[in-house]
Amino acid sequence: MKLYELATTPSARRLNIFLAEKGVDIARIQVDVRAGANLTEEFKAISANGRIPLLELDDGSYLCESVDICRYFDELYPDELALFGDSPLARARVEMWHRIVELDGLIPAFQAFRNLSGVYRDRETCVPAWGEESRARVQAFLPRLERRLAEADYLAGERYSIADIAAYVLIGFLPRLGMEVTSMPHIQRWLARVNGRPALAGC
Ligand SMILES: N[C@@H](CCC(=O)N[C@@H](CS)C(=O)NCC(=O)O)C(=O)O
């Protein structure tokens, strides 16, 4: 198997943290999406969403979408971490918080960055007003995250999960939007806990 990625991007980071947690090592090929390396017909032919990360399987087929790739590795190599949850209710809670972080945090953050910085202006129309609105949505989401982490050690409850990885990537991305969470004590406590995980050391 081979992973096409650009390690500095948040979507690749999300997958790389997950793989590090699971102790999975895999050959990686860097694809400079900022320079448009994903816009070629060759790349579009192998990536259903035209983006990275993209996993090439040994049978020559491909999987894209970072969460889908995480789920594939989780089922290939089940372990006690159970990052997607270890019971029907735990799985539902992980999925719930993962979707909340993704829909209300990560996606608006990416939209804010893309539309305000114009980083992908060679391939899409940037709408600064949408960038500002998306940024405001991220800002409004942070107190919700703070409230959740006031009542639980981790987003889905007592155990670390893929929802925490998504939130961790979101928090790491905030400086690119000129935002931070230093005044939010519960997020800070959670960050210290997550930063202490050995898997995070190289990510
Ligand atoms: N939903 C996708 C998002 C992937 C994504 O947006 N990747 C970005 C890098 S963070 C990319 O390839 N951007 C290039 C482009 O938009 O042309 C996933 O989670 O894998």
UniProtKB/TrEMBL annotation:
Domain (GST N-terminal) ranges: 1-81
InterPro entries, A to Z: Glutathione-S-Trfase_C-like, Glutathione-S-Trfase_C_sf, Glutathione_S-Trfase, Glutathione_S-Trfase_N, GST_C, Gtt2-like_N, Thioredoxin-like_sf
Highest taxon listed in the record's lineage: Bacteria
Pfam families assigned to the protein according to its UniProt record, in alphabetical order: GST_C, GST_N_2
CDD domains in alphabetical order: GST_N_GTT2_like
Domain annotation GST C-terminal: ranges: 87-203
PANTHER family, alphabetized: GLUTATHIONE S-TRANSFERASE-RELATED, HYPOTHETICAL GLUTATHIONE S-TRANSFERASE LIKE PROTEIN
Protein name as catalogued: Glutathione S-transferase family protein
Organism this protein belongs to: Zobellella iuensis
Source organism phylogeny: Bacteria, Pseudomonadati, Pseudomonadota, Gammaproteobacteria, Aeromonadales
